[in-house]
Design brief:
The complex is a heterodimer of chains A (523) and B (450).
Chain A lengths: L8 H17 L1 E5 L3 H13 L3 E5 L6 H4 L14 H12 L4 E5 L3 H7 L9 E5 L3 H14 L2 E8 L2 E7 L2 E4 L18 H8 L8 H4 L4 H15 L8 H13 L7 H8 L2 H4 L6 H7 L12 H14 L19 H32 L9 H9 L5 E4 L3 H6 L3 H9 L4 H20 L10 H19 L8 H10 L5 H20 L8 E5 L6 E3 L2
Parallel strand pairs in A: 1-2, 1-4, 2-3, 4-5
Antiparallel strand pairs in A: 5-6, 6-9, 7-8, 9-10
Chain B lengths: L11 H8 L13 H6 L6 E5 L3 H11 L5 E5 L24 H12 L4 E5 L8 H5 L3 E5 L3 H13 L17 E7 L2 E7 L22 H5 L5 H17 L9 H18 L6 H8 L7 H20 L8 E5 L5 E5 L14 E5 L5 H10 L6 E7 L2 E4 L4 H7 L7 H4 L5 E12 L2 E13 L15
Parallel strand pairs in B: 1-2, 1-4, 2-3, 4-5, 9-13
Antiparallel strand pairs in B: 5-6, 6-7, 7-8, 10-11, 10-12, 12-13
Helix pairs in contact in B: 3-11, 8-9, 8-10, 9-10
Classes of the chains: A alpha/beta (523), B alpha/beta (450).
The structure holds zinc ion.
């Protein structure tokens, strides 16, 4: 493992050396380096991706100087890809930067295999037709793809790949895995070693809340036919019992126990999200299955057998009022159980690998360990092929968006962003691209959008006149602030996809720079 | 209408927005070449506060949004750990003032843009410095600094006799902040939308460990580190202030934390964590800064030109779990000490400036000590620098009414220290001073003081 670089310190604190290694191994390609593409890649080069390839066939014009920081006066007339590439290289010499002076549309048409060399492709400012072709190529080659587009004060970002699985989804708020209402023997025995009525006040106020709750929950269950508090009244009563157990008002451990009592009320077993993952048909593994799904198959077996309905224990506990010694003891109890669960899981993974004819040791121990630790937080993201969404979007959903107060503007922008491409295919210019045609372009765009809605089977839906007018006013302008924003979002998603950490967005993100009421649309 | 796109113009794209009439625009929007050119005039000046992750982006975004006159203020020097996101800086710039390098780099690439750097603390500038700008864009990472600038911007705000804000005195601010994959951008129009202080609860105070936990029952690596940093350091180095930027000091704290962790059997003390805990490091990445800054720059352009609707008034962005954005319309706190009409103080005509300062110190809401007092831009008393203190010292024994040119009711600005959550902070307060028993006061409206 390479020594962590000081200059990456602030991001290593987010995605760790493992995430950084993934970035440094990646090879990413940019299609079109206007401001949207340039800004996306600026953020990625700073973060230290392995290599970048910039594809753009255009030459720098005066107008580019007004919206793209990566070109300057000396660039006029030169290859835009070359100028942007040399500026990006200046930002981080650890990145291998190269450029290809060619139009992306031509490359998509003539050299589809070109794209298979990359980890990920960011396609900016492409029109619909080219997007659909590229999507097909990248899916076939298993190359991750992100589309980004800025258009006047609007824009969109869309991820496209068959499937993205995440082990380290790192949710910000997630229920601790404490098993307070389902303690295993060692935890139960540990709790039994404490007396909640101990006379020494110093000892009493240092009993960890986990112990208090395990004991109180157990006591409750004994007097309630094995059930735990479930109604609002019962929960209140349970909290009152905790309060009654306090010796003095300043006992932080009891206050923590009351605050954490909802962890006793949480249902046993796995969440519906995890249920869905273990029952996914991809969990029926075969020789082509990915490591992730092999481990899911093993997890399914674990839950059904050794786990008795639970996933492997996570093994970490939050900080809580306690003496150092008892806290460390408690930590060890959780860690030992997690280790034991991991060993079972490891066996299950190895035997699953063997069953499907793979090397039983092909998945490293560390990966299985991380999988166990994050088993309750697994994420699977799938994205519809673009051609499917474009030809047969989810109509009830689209109609809902167009009629909903919070979504109608974003829904309208979605339709209009597609309508402008149709417009361009018909009239060879974008609506409002030329001042002289503004007056006729507005009704033309309106009828194009209405036609599109009709073709999709969304008859009767209307778009706000104001929005149609604004779309014409934008005239396909690529404004720097919008490009930086859309590019910023695209680069965040790239990082999540490459590091395989955190959860990438789903659906299409419609950026609304008019009042910032942007939305994610799932069509 | 001229066919702008057929000319090779630098403002090719921006012209679409600024030269054409629109339907979803601000009330003041007057599209045309004059509007575009006005952005380049001397009277449209934007101040960027902070030349860090957000500030670098803001300077670029504003310069490429048609603004020509920018100033930037930052007291920091460039560090290696800035380079993963502060794209205007290179390795060879480490140690140089951020404001100066940032201004130079943007000027080099965008011809015609003028950026004046100020390498100093925000408190070092006179209040009048800040009044010069059409709008102030904040790219800061500290609550205290935001609070200070907010106080300054709100001090310009004047209310009419009906307690409505006078439009010409509103100094708009845009403010951004990020942490990891999350961030916020907001628009503050003092007197109209909530100021920073109105919604201070959005920034909960940092949790501190109880000293008895550190001293007696440490459980986590952070407890061991804070023990070494807050307790052991003083025990051993009594008198020597801990300097988080001195690597020797940091290494000492780390070594002590390791010893303590070993003693108690606590895992997880690393040098990186030690730095994180001691310096309260907030993780930061380029992409989030880009998103938040560009939202702020966009709103700046909208406020100045009216070219679209404005963000009303608080945008949150969270990209950690999927992608969530939300716009919240927060409301003003009508009793806000900072953006309200000002704290009303009634005085006898005989009160001297010194006595007035004593009153401020004892005032339960203000608790203002070490006050520097200005009246309509005139320094009545200044605590610093020493030369100004000496020049204004003789005013202390004079009646305040005389110092205020016998105006019986007027606004004073007081800069000083106040107590907030048991800590001393620098602040700027606007006070409405009324002298009792002077002609003309009786029939003036003195209600509504907060
Ligand atoms: Zn306020």
């Amino acid at each position: 493992m390479a020594e962590p670089k000081v200059k990456y310190d602030r991001q290593l604190r987010i995605w760790g050396q493992q995430g950084q290694d993934a970035l440094e191994k990646s090879s990413i390609c940019l299609l079109n380096c206007g401001p949207t593409g340039s800004e996306t890649f600026k953020n990625l080069v700073l973060g230290g991706v392995g290599s970048i390839t910039i594809v753009d066939g255009s030459k720098v014009e005066a107008g580019d100087l007004g919206n793209n920081f990566m070109v300057d006066e000396s660039s006029i007339g030169q290859s835009k890809a070359k100028c942007v590439c040399s500026f990006l290289q200046e930002l981080n010499d650890a990145v291998k930067a190269k450029f290809i002076e060619e139009y992306p549309e031509a490359l998509i048409e003539t050299n589809p295999s070109f794209f298979s060399q990359f980890t990920l492709v960011v396609a900016t400012q492409l029109v619909e037709d080219a997007m659909i072709r590229l999507d097909r190529i990248c899916r076939e080659a298993n190359v991750m793809l992100i589309f980004a587009r800025s258009y006047g004060l609007t824009g969109f970002v869309r991820i496209s790949l068959k499937e993205h699985t995440v082990i380290e989804s790192k949710p910000e708020h997630f229920l601790d895995d404490l098993r307070l209402n389902n303690p295993w023997p060692e935890l139960r025995r540990f709790a039994e070693g404490f007396d909640l009525n101990v006379q020494d006040p110093v000892v009493h106020k240092h009993i960890p809340y986990v112990v208090i709750l395990v004991k109180m929950a157990d006591e409750w269950a004994k007097s309630h036919g094995g059930r735990f508090p479930s109604t609002r009244e019962e929960k209140k009563e349970f909290k009152e019992l905790l309060k009654a157990g306090m010796f003095a008002q300043d006992e932080d451990n009891y206050r923590e126990a009351i605050d954490a009592s909802f962890k006793v009320f949480a249902p046993k077993g796995i969440s519906s999200d995890l249920e869905q993952i273990i029952n996914d048909c991809a969990a029926e593994v075969g020789n082509n299955s990915s490591d992730f799904w092999v481990m899911v198959a093993a997890l399914k077996e674990f839950i059904a057998n050794e786990g008795a309905g639970e996933a492997p224990l996570e093994g970490s506990i939050p900080d809580m009022t306690s003496s150092t010694e008892q806290y460390v003891n408690l930590q060890n109890i959780y860690q030992s159980k997690a280790e034991a669960d991991f060993l079972v899981m490891e066996q299950l993974v190895r035997s699953t690998l063997k069953k499907i004819g793979k090397d039983p040791n092909s998945i490293p121990k560390g990966t299985i360990k991380s999988f166990c630790k994050n088993a309750r937080k697994l994420k699977v993201c799938r994205y519809r092929p673009l051609v499917d969404e474009f030809n047969s979007p989810n109509i009830p959903e689209l109609q809902k968006y167009l009629a909903d107060e919070d979504y109608s503007t974003a829904g309208g922008i979605y339709i209009l962003l597609r309508a402008v491409d149709r417009f361009a295919a018909n009239y060879n210019t974008f609506p409002g691209q030329f001042d002289s045609a503004m007056d006729e372009d507005i009704p033309r765009l309106k009828s194009t959008a209405t036609g599109l809605l009709g073709d999709l089977g969304c008859n009767g839906a209307t778009l706000a006149e104001d929005l149609i007018h604004e779309m014409c006013r934008f005239g396909a302008a690529e404004l720097h602030a919008i490009a930086a924003l859309v590019g910023g979002i695209a680069s965040q998603e790239v990082i999540k996809l490459i590091t395989r950490q955190f959860v990438p967005m789903s659906g299409t993100f419609i950026f609304n720079g008019i009042d910032h009421k942007s939305q994610l649309l799932t069509l | 209408m001229a066919d702008t796109s057929s000319q090779p113009s630098r403002s090719r794209d921006l012209d679409k927005l600024l030269l054409r009439p629109g339907n979803l625009v601000g009330a003041t929007f007057e599209p045309g070449p004059e509007l575009r050119d006005a952005l380049q005039e001397d009277f449209v000046k934007v101040l960027v506060v902070g030349a860090g992750g957000l500030g670098c982006e803001l300077l670029k975004d504003l310069a490429l949004s048609g603004f020509r006159n920018l100033e930037v203020i930052d007291m920091d020097r460039i560090e290696v750990t800035n380079l993963n996101r502060q794209f205007l800086f290179r390795l060879e710039d480490v140690g140089k003032p951020k404001a100066e390098v940032a201004a130079k780099r943007v000027k080099e690439r965008i011809s015609g843009v003028n950026i004046v750097p100020h390498f100093c603390r925000i408190e070092d500038k006179d209040i009048s410095f800040y009044s010069d700008f059409s709008i102030i864009a904040l790219g800061l990472d500290s609550i205290e600094a935001r609070s200070y600038i907010n106080g300054v911007a709100c001090s310009f705000l004047e209310y009419d006799s009906n307690d409505n804000p006078i439009e010409e005195t509103i100094k708009p601010m845009v403010d951004g902040g990020t942490e990891g994959f999350k961030g916020h951008a907001r628009v503050i129009l003092p007197g109209v939308t909530p100021c920073f202080e109105c919604t201070i609860w959005l920034f909960p105070p940092q949790v501190k460990f109880p000293l008895c936990t550190l001293a007696e029952t440490p459980r986590t690596a952070a407890h061991c580190i804070e023990y070494a940093h807050l307790i052991k350091w003083n025990e051993v180095h009594g008198g020597v202030a801990f300097d988080p930027d001195d690597p020797k000091h940091m290494k000492w704290v780390y070594d002590e934390a390791v010893k303590r962790a070993e003693l108690f059997g606590i895992p997880g003390v690393t040098y990186s964590l030690t730095q994180g805990v001691v310096k309260n490091i907030i993780p930061a990445i380029a992409s989030t800064n880009a998103i938040i800054s560009s939202a702020c720059a966009l709103e700046t352009l909208k406020i100045v030109t009216g070219c679209s609707k404005t963000l009303s008034n608080y945008l949150t962005y969270n990209g950690a779990e999927g992608l969530h954005t939300k716009v919240t319309e927060f409301e003003r706190d009508k009793d806000c000490l900072v953006c309200g009409p000002g704290v009303l103080i009634e005085l006898d005509t005989s009160v001297t400036l010194k006595k007035f300062m004593d009153i401020l110190e004892e005032h339960p809401k203000l608790q203002l000590s070490r006050a520097s007092v200005t009246h309509r831009g005139k320094n009545l008393y200044m605590q610093a620098p020493p030369i100004l203190e000496e020049m204004t010292r003789s005013n202390l024994s004079l009646p305040l009414l005389d110092l205020m040119d016998k105006v019986p009711k007027d606004v004073l600005h007081v800069n000083g220290t106040t107590v907030k959550k048991d800590e001393k902070v620098t602040c700027l307060r606007k006070l409405r001073v009324v002298f009792k028993g002077v002609d003309g006061v009786a029939d003036m409206d003195t209600a509504g003081g907060a």
